[in-house]
Write a structure and sequence with these properties.
Layout (H helix, E strand, L loop, with lengths): L17 H7 L2 H4 L3 H17 L5 H19 L12 H13 L12 H37 L4 E6 L2 E7 H26 L1 E2 L15 H7 L4 E2 L3 H6 L2 H27 L7 E2 L18 H24 L14 H23 L2 E2 L1 H9 L5 H10 L4 H18 L8 H5 L15 H6 L9 H16 L1
Parallel strand pairs: 3-4
Antiparallel strand pairs: 1-2, 5-6
Helix pairs in contact: 3-4, 3-6, 3-8, 4-5, 6-7, 6-12, 7-10, 10-11, 10-12, 11-12, 14-15
Length: 461
């Protein structure tokens, strides 16, 4: 193909090297933007006609042709030519082939620079909405399981060591809170995505009397870009989305890490449904938490997408540079990965089965109520630091004799605090420990139920 046959080929006298065509083509991945490219083109065409830049008859012919192309693409009947650079050229060439030279008028008053920015904003605006719905589904699964397990107690951990007993429902709602922050970030990101760049043209804005406000209205954009140079070179919204996606993946990964550990024989806290596990090709007894492990692994993939877009952007001069073609694959990969992980994790969470007796037994071990004993001493008038030391020595005494605190008789306890009474044993009970924390954000049953009520009332509202 000679240079002159390219849409931009007027200035060129030599054909494009076949290797260059293959190297520079983005059609194999940006063709997923076809709906948005056509949606933006139709809005642009309507504006051109409304402004008298093209005739109503020309606009009608162009829009009809674009709708036919969309129909073919939706049915999988569109043929993509391998010598075209991107989805914009594929659609424009097909349009001209179908309706003749009038199809070439569609590109009046715009550039591929503002066109691709528009396509990506339209695409990502929809995908953020889809992801928000998936996050909400996962949150619903967590709340449903929390309600089901409202009386289940498990050991809480710090430094991967038993710390204090907590309700399983409280634990599950901790992930709900993380996801709530993820949703807040994504909504805020959506506001910055929802800016209409068309009219910025290549970089300086168009000289045609366009009506950007009309295009924004047609495409449901509440805001129009304020600087044409910024508009064509801006990919902050891409980087911001992938950062938000990375945090979301990190939260899912941490949850999956617990599920991997807890489902092992050493813990035995949870059974992951057979539908969300796999077996071994050699060991017939194995039931592997592969879904949870893959979500954990795919988190690194999305982190890589973030590093990719930041690296692409870090050295670019104003304004548009072809490097920006490399923004799409990391974005598409992050979108696809996050959506897949959210969907499978939501279903897997709803089918988890917890070993309540095993959890309760474990929660009672490891001196998990030691803090409650120290708090009891404080209520008796002993300064906390002194109480901390008394209980610490008491725990050391128990470890040496391989005893639990509850197994000590009152005289042994009085070796460390001479005024000990029998009521001290009440604070060594895990149910009492959990129930004592009836504050906003605490793990007591009443506090957790209040939080669930708040969550559900907000969700309904």
């Amino acid at each position: 193909m000679s240079g002159q046959k390219k849409p931009w080929g007027g200035r060129f006298s030599e054909p494009t090297d076949k290797r260059v065509e293959e190297f520079t083509s983005s059609l194999h991945f940006d063709k997923r933007l076809y709906r948005y490219d056509i949606e933006g083109s139709i809005a642009h065409c309507r504006m051109l006609a409304a402004q008298g830049i093209i005739s109503p008859e020309e606009a009608e012919k162009i829009i009809s042709g674009l709708q036919d192309i969309l129909q073919n693409m939706e049915k999988g009947e569109f043929s993509y030519s391998s010598d075209l650079e991107d989805i914009h050229m594929a659609i424009e060439k097909s349009l001209i082939d179908r309706i003749g030279e009038v199809g070439g008028k569609l590109h009046t008053a715009r550039s591929r620079n503002d066109q691709i920015s528009l396509d990506m904003r339209l695409y990502l605006r929809d995908e953020v909405k889809n992801i928000l719905d998936l996050v909400a589904d996962l949150q619903t699964s967590l709340v449903d399981v929390a309600k089901r397990e409202i009386d289940t107690i498990l050991p809480g951990y710090t430094h991967m060591r038993k710390a204090q007993p907590v309700l399983l429902a409280h634990y599950l709602l901790a992930w709900w809170e993380m996801l709530d922050r993820d949703m807040s970030r994504l909504r805020e990101c959506g506001e910055r995505i929802n800016v209409m760049p068309l009219g910025s043209a290549a970089l300086a804005g168009t000289g045609f009397p366009v009506n950007r406000e009309y295009v924004a209205e047609l495409l449901d954009f509440p805001k129009i870009s304020g600087n044409s140079m910024d508009a064509v070179s801006d990919r902050d919204f891409v980087a911001e989305f992938i950062f938000d996606a990375s945090l979301l993946m990190m939260h899912m990964s941490r949850f999956c890490e617990d599920l991997v550990i807890w489902s092992g024989e050493e813990f035995g806290f949870v059974d992951i449904s057979d539908a969300f596990t796999t077996g071994s090709s050699i060991m017939p007894q194995k039931k592997n938490p592969d879904v949870a492990e893959l979500i954990r692994g795919k988190t690194g993939r999305v982190y890589g997408d973030l590093m990719a877009i930041l690296t692409v952007m870090k050295g670019l001069p104003m304004t548009y540079d072809r490097d920006l073609q490399e923004d799409k694959e990391p974005l598409f990969d992050a979108v696809d990965t996050v959506k897949a992980c959210l969907a499978v994790l939501s279903d897997m969470t709803g089918n988890l089965k917890f070993n309540r007796s095993r959890m309760l037994e474990s929660a009672a071990g490891g001196f998990s109520t030691a803090t409650d004993v120290a708090d009891y001493l404080v209520m008796k008038g002993i300064p906390f630091r002194e109480a901390h030391g008394i209980v610490g020595r008491l725990v050391g005494y128990c470890i040496e004799r391989q005893k639990d605190m509850k197994a000590l008789d009152i005289e042994e306890i009085r070796l460390f605090w001479k005024d000990a009474d029998a009521d001290i044993y009440a604070c060594m009970n895990v149910n009492g420990s959990v129930g004592a924390r009836n504050i906003t954000g605490g793990t007591a049953r009443e506090a957790v139920l209040r939080r669930i009520e708040e969550i559900e009332s907000r969700r309904i509202g």
